[in-house]
Amino acid sequence: MDPTVAVIGATGAVGEVFLRVAEQREFPMAKLKLLASPRSAGKRLTFRGQQITVEETSEATLEGADIVFCSATSAVSKQWGPWLRERGVIMIDDGSAYRMDADVPLVVPEVNGDDLEWHNHIISIPNCTTTPLVMALNAMRQVAPLKRVTAATYQAVTGTGAAAARELMAQTEAIGRHEAIPPIEVYPQQIALNVLPQVDDFDEDDYTKEELKMRNETRKILHIDGLPFSSTCVRVPVVLSHSEAVHVEFESDAPMKQLHEALRAQEGLVIGEDPKTWVSPLQAANDDRVFVSRLRPDRSVEHGVAFWVVSDNLRKGAATNAIQIAEELIRRGKL
Fold first, then answer.
1. Which one, of 167, 309, 322, lies nearest residue 241 by Cα?
2. Cα 110-112-114 angle, rounded to 5 deg
3. pTM for the full model?
4. Rounded Cα–Cα distance for residues 93 and 1 (Å)
């Protein structure tokens, strides 16, 4: 029997993409409930040719759901996660509220789908920078064990939300008209024609929370506690797709030919065969795949490589991964 599905945060940037991806992938569902905050209740969204009215998230509107996809604030996730768990309802959470909880699997199905076997009704989706990275690292570690990873990210504004995308477009349009920049509301500085080397608040050792998420989530997904990892996360004036420049050091020799073979074998990933070609954020937008290019030796260490990885942050980085988790749960009979 097909599940009844509820989407919390249906009117947000990820929620809207979720509906598009679910329709494209023909995800089976007996009924769909679209939920959001009180200010968004009453809006109408289209799914499979039908108009559905958005309702306020409440116990009454969540009643009867088999799977709940949550793409809202951590406060919302923490409010409804325990309530749904008590009722045996699975919540697939797009936020950071539960990612590092020991009893919550953090899943990229192509990498650690087996972790779904021990879920306790709450399943987390990784940060949208972590997902493409672990897919590449998972392939590469089939050739040689990972010793150290460093990354610099180039993150699209939709990672912050729809308001950030509107702010970028408004600033860009003002610059094009030679007008004053509108009041800045989302970011600490103008984002158009600029880059901001801070994503989220500062935390431990002056790393941002985003940078720490990448480190901790990568370790958890790959099951490598203590993997040496460092990143610098940067917001760039791009609407869709997060990009990363990554350096990996291996414990032993990792021949380039074998790395290419391993990356080709990784489900959901595309590897550019010519190191002089690359994939841009625009090229990766609206695609569910992760693209690795510019793979080359890193001669600064004994067993090292460098590469470029990019993926659509709203699709594989969020909505698509959530739906793939649900598909995997159904396949494994774990609903």
1. 309
2. 110
3. 0.95
4. 23
| Count of CB atoms situated within 10 Å of the CB of 146 | 20
Relative orientation angle of helices 256-265 and 130-140, to the nearest 10 degrees? 120
Q: Rounded CA gap, 76 and 255, in Å? A: 46
Known catalytic residues are 128, 242
Alpha carbon 14 to its chain's center: 10
CA distance 68 to 81: 9
Residues in Cβ contact with 66 at an 8 Å cutoff, skipping those fewer than 6 apart: 3, 4, 5, 89, 90, 335
Could you tell me if 258 and 162 are in contact, meaning their C-beta atoms sit under 8 angstroms apart?
no
Give the β-pairing of 242-250 and 146-155: antiparallel
Domains within the chain, CATH numbers bracketed: 4-126+318-332 (3.40.50.720), 130-156+195-313 (3.30.360.10)
36 touches 8 (CB < 8 A): yes
Q: What digits encode the pLDDT tens for the residues 165-179?
A: 999 999 999 999 999
Tokens of 43: 């809006």
Residue in the block written with tokens 């199905």: 109
Cα separation, 281 vs 238, in Å, equals 8
Q: Which of 85, 127, 79 is nearest to 104 (CA)?
A: 85
- pLDDT digit string, tens, across residues 201-238: 999 999 999 999 999 999 999 999 999 999 999 999 99
Query: How far apart (Å, rounded) are the C-alpha atoms in residues 38 and 229?
Result: 41
